[in-house]
Amino acid sequence: MSAPAFSADRGDGTYRNPILDADWSDPDVLRVGDDFYLTASSFGRAPGLPLLHSRDLVNWTLVGHALPLLEPAAEFRVPRHDCGVWAPSLRHFDDRFWIFWGDPDHGIYQINSPQIRGPWTRPYLVEAGKGLIDPCPLWDEETGEAYLVHAWAKSRSGVKNRLTGHRMRPDGTGLLDEGKVVVDADRLPGWFTLEGPKLYRHDGWYWIFAPAGGVETGWQGVFRSREFFGPYEERIVLEQKDTDVNGPHQGGWVRTAAGEDWFVHFQQRGAYGRVVHLQPMRWGDGGGWPVLGDEGAPVTVHRKPELPPQPPAAPATDDDFPGGRFGRQWQWTANPQNGWATQHSGDGLRLTCVRSVHAHDLRKLANVLTQRLPGTPAVIEVELALGSEDPGARAGLAVLGDAFRWIGLQRGADGTAHLVHRFAETVADRERDADHPRPAPGGRARLRIETSTGARCRFSYDVGEGWEPSGQVFAATPWRWVGALLGLFAVAPTGGGHAGAAMFTRFRITRS
Q1: What family does the database annotate (predicted)?
Q2: Model-level pTM greater than 0.85?
């Protein structure tokens, strides 16, 4: 059996970074027994809080999501691409898994479950407030106290570059004080945009692993104190140095059962989003500070952790949509509504052509089914049949960001189905043609996107006469905090009655 196309496992006892070459933003990692788990930011997409599993920290599979719907549910009925779930922390305490995250507009939430696959509790608002982000709890076994540390979003609170600590109720239902600034990075020469703290207890010290310097150019800092509320001393433990890994930072420390230490973090890569790297870690001599990577520089290729061999694996991308159901790799651009995707007896994704006033701007559609754009050059293909007879109904395959482009089918006023290719620039409020429409006999087409270095996307189609290129090369763009997304959609102009549906079959992503 061949290895998955996107596995980081090199098959010779080594791995190559990134271990997750797609937008698994702001990762946090946890070990329970022989199993490792990872979660990441999911922002405004639903379901949220992805849950990944590994036995060797290199080969990962997506096993589910912890958050079926975002709350407040009414606010996420429409796309809020850069809002929602920011920088979660994943912990295990009292025989339960816990995830804490900050919603910059509402406050700090938590959910918990006895099993990683759930059932998870509904979101509980631990602390309401604007700009409270990146929370991380600690249940201190040495003192019996529970603590929480968080960062600040200046866009909501007017405050940034500092970390605030609190005592917390052991059941995670609230904070016990107004909080104290435990690290004020404005007082540290050269430090800015301190955020993303992860809180640990080790060797008699409180440790806060926290990045600074911004997502594209930053570094990983570590702070330590004998007392939770400080004072803390600091050290930079990971930075780009002479490598090509810009801004290596923000993630979590994990220790294997055999005592090896590793650090998982992200690298911001433009339209590809925040890809995930794995760094070796050790506790240094003469002071006990952690040493990450190759003496503080990120590694590209390294030996795998000393753990039992595992088969190569990577999060799923392909989908045959059995019975009309879609795989775990897909997320809607907002909280889903009943009837967007209907189950049936065969294979294929049947998407309803949802009527919308935003039919000409995919960025405003809630009913776009998305997955992450691979960070490696790839070929994306899907087959489409447009069943709707409603004039203006359309469906297609998209690359979605601040700018977007899609290729697919649209029903004309005369009942003819046309192959169309459309795009919108970042500043445009509606799409326009990227190529001339042409007839699509039988309302069927095969659609393809070929990506190359720099997230450059070449679109093509086949309406029965072989593959034909369409339009110019499109350079995918991210959202503000989210990498570009691949999307499947079906939509129709406003009007009365049911607008029909589109069928997608054989979705495939292969390394090119």
Answers
A1: Belongs to the glycosyl hydrolase 43 family.
A2: yes
